[in-house]
Write a structure and sequence with these properties.
256 residues; alpha/beta; 2 domains; eight-stranded mixed sheet; three-stranded antiparallel sheet; 11 strands; 26% strand
Length: 256
């Protein structure tokens, strides 16, 4: 089953990097130093890296052929109700949006249909091989409103004060530098723009995903609301496996 392939990939990533995590542990801070934003601990959550941010263990990034199968699996629509997921974004024709961690473009393509030919969707990826596959698929399908972007671990490389919506589908929990990514994404939003987390529900033990790849609504809010330009707007919990947690950039917010 595709879920088993995905879980196997997570196990392989977790086991192959154990020694690297020990080596990457930072030196002890001096007594007068400011608290570190990130810290390295012993890995305790399956699928985790041992790197912590705001008491949450950051998950391993899963890549390779099994990821391609997982993202494009035929049963994804049934398991995740992706059609309804995209509807919950309330995209309008002509809007500019971004799909962070776009992967194969599964969600990007559906967003592009929603914003129409006068809109645009920025498909952001840090994995070069994945980005090349996405670009080839865009050319094959003839999409003219999808812009591929090579991001980094700290910056999605989006234009400032431009976007109506930014969405992260099952990806935020894997960011190695979530604070820096959030900081730059908030800058990319227009005042009134929406920042959307789609995350597997940590509150639901029946969701067949490793704990490090799930997030609770409370943890998402905790990490998002340290950015004073954001306010929580709404949470949709109607999808089978994920919740859709929406924040809005305050209308008075200005790009710094």
């Amino acid at each position: 089953m595709p879920i088993l392939f995905y879980l196997l990939a997570l196990v392989l990533f977790a086991s192959s990097s154990f020694a690297q995590e020990k080596a990457a542990a930072p030196a002890s801070a001096t007594t007068n130093a400011a608290p570190a934003r990130y810290e390295q601990r012993h890995r305790i959550v399956p699928g985790g890296t041992g790197r912590y941010y705001m008491d949450r263990e950051i998950a391993h990034v899963v890549s390779g052929n099994e990821t391609l199968k997982w993202l494009e699996r035929p049963e994804r629509e049934q398991e995740e109700d992706t059609s309804n997921m995209v509807k919950l974004l309330v995209l309008k024709p002509g809007e500019k949006a971004a799909d962070i961690g776009a992967g194969t473009g599964y969600i990007t393509r559906r967003m592009a249909e929603a914003v129409g030919p006068k809109g645009a969707v920025y498909a952001v990826e840090i994995n070069e091989e994945m980005l090349e596959l996405l670009q080839a698929d865009v050319r094959k399908r003839g999409h003219t409103n999808i812009v591929s972007v090579r991001g980094t671990e700290t910056d999605a490389k989006l234009p400032a004060n431009t976007l109506d919506l930014i969405v992260m589908v099952d990806v935020y929990h894997e960011f190695t530098h979530p604070y820096e990514m959030m900081e730059n994404m908030v800058k990319a939003l227009k005042p009134g723009g929406r920042l959307v987390f789609v995350e597997f529900k940590a509150e639901d033990e029946k969701v067949p995903i490793y704990p490090a790849h799930k997030m609770s609504e409370a943890q998402v809010k905790r990490e998002a609301l340290i950015f004073k330009d954001l306010e929580w707007t709404k949470t949709h919990a109607t999808l089978p496996w994920q919740h859709v947690i929406i924040f809005t950039k305050k209308a008075a917010a200005a790009v710094k």
